[in-house]
Amino acid sequence: MTNISIILVNWNGKKDTLECLASVKNVSMGQRVNASVIVVDNGSIDDSVAAIKKTFPDVEVIEAGENLGFTGGNNVGIRKALEDGADFVWLLNNDTSVDENALVALLEVYKDPRIGIAGSKIYFSPGHEFHKEKYQKKELGKVIWYAGGHIDWQNMYASHRGVDEVDTGQYDTVVETPFVTGCSMMVKKQVFEKVGLLDEKLFAYLEDLDFCLRANQMGYKLLYVPQSKLWHKNAGSSGVGSELHQYYMTRNRLLVGMRYAPYRTKFALIREAMRFIVFGPSVKRKAVINFLK
Q1: Phi, psi of 233 (to 5 degrees)
Q2: Cα-trace Rg, the chain
Q3: Other Cβ atoms closer than 10 A to 64
Q4: What is the maximum alpha-carbon separation in the chain?
Q5: What is the pLDDT of residues 206-257, one digit of tens each?
């Protein structure tokens, strides 16, 4: 029997989380799979906890009592999953809806012991695309958000392959990828035992990149699995372009870059940080100062 724990982190996201859990409830488990669901609530004040417990009594809800971020919240769930004997942990954003075959498709790729992390093909949820005006009605729900990743080491940017493209089957092959998005990340327990958990210093954003780079350094392969599909509302908690988003993306890009990037890129990042301090908006100045500390 293979034991799987599915972990969601909720922070005042009652509607999204309930919709996600409804889709997870319909996921096919295949043969000899035992799956449990853990929701870690980061101190919500929108009666999320009561609603989740009432609607999904089989879901284990852990109340953190405060906002631990994506990293801290997930780590609470991961620790509980490993204590309960999970062979795999599936980190899943609470603002997603999951295809019924998403879990089985991820599990199927773990025949090679070197594979440590696997991720799904992820679409924008209809109406949540970056460029809504570009698409015909029949294309909605087929616009790609993630189909594997790229890392631009010269400029220290991680980007999603295929983003904004309409899916016509162009990314339907399982391939290795430099990072798997934490929006849908299946991790086998040995990776956590060897690599550790998510870095709570990062709080939110690029923590998945950092974790994947550590796993890769330890010799694990990372796979993009297009047969596993889900739909993402995209930045449901903090909002793309919000000050919270700008702050953590600025600070964490510097932190991750200084850990893994080539020396030339590190020097460029320091120069960029100095420009932000002098000329940048206040939120980016604050992010740089926090990074330097």
Answers
A1: -80, -15
A2: 19
A3: 19
A4: 59
A5: 999 999 999 999 999 999 999 999 999 986 555 566 899 999 999 999 999 9
